C-alpha cells in the first residue's frame, strides 16, 4: 500500500522530486535565513495535473516580494464552481498544473518595502483577480475586471510576473500586489467571509449597476453558492426576492434565507402568475439552459443579468425582449473598490455565506457534491489541513 507521497509521485509520473513549477527568473526556492519573501519560496498546494486525474498535493513557487507585494498565509479558501470548470478544462484547455481557488482569506506574513495598506498580522482577502494593467479606461474607473488588456486572474491566467501561469488559493501562501488585496474587517467570521470574495461580489455588482432598490422585485435563478448570496444581498436591500430553483429540496431553504417566494422552474402555473413582475433577474446557473421562460417574467425595462453561464446562451426571444424593452445583460465579479465595499457591507450587517468547512483531502468529493448540487451552500477549505496532511506524511 503506497503512502500518500508515493501515490502523489506516481500520479504525477515523476521519479522522486515533488513537482515544482519554477518562475521565469529561475531563482531557486529559499531555504536559507533570508527574510521571508526576499526570495521565491516553494509552498504546498493542491491541484489538478490534467483534466481527469483527482486533485492531489503538489509544490508550487511563489515569487519573491516586490516593493508593492504582500505575502499572505492562506487560512481559508472557498470552493467555487468555476474551480471545477478550470480544473476539468470545461471552459477550454486549462493550464496545468491547475491550482484553483479565488475566495482566499489569510493573514499577512510579510510585506514589500513600499506597501502602505497592510502590515504583518493583518487579515486580508484575495478574490478572482490579482492584477490588471492599471492604466486603461476601465482600470482607471475601478472596473479592473473589465481591463482592456484582460485582468490577471487569480489562477490559470498567464502571469506576466513569472512568465508562467497563476496559482490560486488551494495553497499555503500567495503573493499578490497590494492593490488587489482586500482588507477583512476585524471581527469577520473568516471561513464564512471567504466566499464573499467571489459569490457575493458577483451578485452585488449587478444589484449596484442596475440600482436594485427597496420594494423592487428581484428574481434569483439557481440557488447555489452565488444564488444564496444573491438572496441575502437582495433581502438586505429590502428588495422583494423570489428564488427559481430546479430542486424541490431547496424551496424551504430559499425562504429561510429570506426570499418571499420560491418557485420550481417546472411549475408552469407559478411561472405564468409571475409574468411581467420582475425588475431584475440574476441568473446564477453555472451552465447554459433554455432561458426563454424567464424573459416573460420581466416587466417593462426589466433586465436579466447572466453571471453564471459562460458558454453560448440558449432561448433568447427577440420579440419577448423587444415588446417590453427588456434587456439581457452579463456581468462578471466586480472591481477591487467594489469588492472592498461588499466585504465591508456584509461584515457590518453580519451577512455571510452558509458554509461547510472541509479538509483539503476532501476536495475531490466536494467537487462531486457541487456537481450533484449537494452543497448548502459553499464548501470552504480549512487550509490548516494542507499543513497537517504534509506533516503526517513527511
Ligand atoms: Zn468564483
Ligand atoms: Zn486595464
What does this structure look like?
- By secondary structure, this protein is of the alpha/beta class.
- The chain has 2 domains: 4-197 and 335-393, Alpha-Beta Complex (Quinone Oxidoreductase, Chain A, domain 1), CATH 3.90.180.10; 199-330, Rossmann fold.
- It has 13 helices and 17 strands.
- Helix 9 links the parallel strand 13 and strand 14 (298-306).
- Helix 5 crosses helix 11.
- The chain binds zinc ion (2 copies).
- Residues 80, 82, 102, 128, 198 line the site of one zinc ion.
Write the layout of secondary structure elements.
Layout: H1 4-12, E1 41-47, E2 56-62, E3 69-79, H2 81-87, E4 104-111, E5 123-126, E6 129-131, H3 137-140, E7 152-153, E8 173-177, E9 182-183, H4 190-193, H5 199-209, E10 217-221, H6 225-236, E11 240-245, H7 251-256, E12 261-264, H8 268-273, E13 278-283, H9 292-295, E14 298-306, H10 318-322, E15 327-330, H11 336-349, E16 355-358, H12 363-371, E17 378-382, H13 384-393
Parallel strand pairs: 10-11, 10-13, 11-12, 13-14, 14-15, 16-17
Antiparallel strand pairs: 1-2, 3-4, 3-8, 3-17, 4-5, 5-9, 6-7
Amino acid at each position: 500500500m503506497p503512502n500518500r507521497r508515493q501515490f502523489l509521485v506516481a500520479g504525477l509520473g515523476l521519479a522522486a522530486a515533488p513537482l515544482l513549477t519554477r518562475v521565469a527568473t529561475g531563482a531557486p526556492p529559499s531555504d536559507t535565513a533570508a527574510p521571508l519573501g526576499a526570495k521565491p519560496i516553494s509552498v504546498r498546494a493542491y491541484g489538478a495535473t490534467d483534466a481527469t486525474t483527482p486533485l492531489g498535493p503538489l509544490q508550487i513557487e511563489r515569487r519573491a516580494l516586490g516593493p508593492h507585494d504582500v505575502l499572505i498565509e492562506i487560512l481559508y479558501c472557498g470552493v467555487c464552481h468555476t474551480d471545477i470548470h478550470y480544473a476539468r478544462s470545461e471552459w477550454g484547455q486549462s493550464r496545468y498544473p491547475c491550482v484553483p481557488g479565488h475566495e482566499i482569506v489569510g493573514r499577512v506574513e510579510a510585506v514589500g518595502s513600499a506597501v502602505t495598506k497592510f502590515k504583518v498580522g493583518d487579515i486580508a482577502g484575495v478574490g478572482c483577480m490579482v492584477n490588471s494593467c492599471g492604466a486603461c479606461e476601465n482600470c482607471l474607473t475601478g472596473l479592473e475586471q473589465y481591463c482592456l488588456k484582460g485582468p490577471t486572474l487569480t489562477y490559470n491566467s498567464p502571469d506576466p510576473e513569472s512568465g508562467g501561469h497563476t496559482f490560486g488559493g488551494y495553497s499555503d501562501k500567495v503573493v499578490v500586489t497590494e492593490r488587489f488585496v482586500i482588507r477583512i474587517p476585524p471581527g469577520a467570521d473568516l471561513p464564512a467571509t471567504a466566499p464573499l470574495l467571489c459569490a457575493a461580489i458577483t451578485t452585488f455588482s449587478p444589484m449596484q449597476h442596475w440600482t436594485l432598490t427597496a420594494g423592487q422585485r428581484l428574481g434569483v435563478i439557481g440557488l447555489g453558492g452565488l444564488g444564496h448570496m444573491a438572496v441575502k444581498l437582495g433581502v438586505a436591500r429590502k428588495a422583494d426576492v423570489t428564488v427559481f430553483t430546479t430542486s424541490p429540496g431547496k424551496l424551504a431553504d430559499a425562504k429561510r434565507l429570506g426570499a418571499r417566494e420560491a418557485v420550481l422552474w417546472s411549475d408552469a402555473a407559478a411561472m405564468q402568475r409571475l409574468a411581467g413582475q420582475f425588475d431584475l433577474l440574476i441568473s446564477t446557473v453555472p451552465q447554459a439552459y433554455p432561458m426563454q421562460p424567464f424573459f416573460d417574467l420581466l416587466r417593462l425595462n426589466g433586465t436579466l443579468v447572466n453571471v453564471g453561464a459562460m458558454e453560448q446562451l440558449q432561448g433568447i426571444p427577440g420579440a419577448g425582449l423587444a415588446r417590453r424593452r427588456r434587456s439581457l445583460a452579463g456581468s462578471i465579479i466586480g472591481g477591487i473598490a467594489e469588492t472592498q465595499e461588499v466585504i465591508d457591507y456584509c461584515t457590518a450587517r453580519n451577512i455571510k455565506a452558509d458554509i461547510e468547512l472541509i479538509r483539503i483531502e476532501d476536495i475531490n468529493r466536494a467537487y462531486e457534491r457541487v456537481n450533484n448540487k449537494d452543497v448548502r451552500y459553499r464548501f470552504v477549505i480549512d487550509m490548516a489541513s494542507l499543513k497537517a496532511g504534509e506533516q503526517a506524511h513527511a
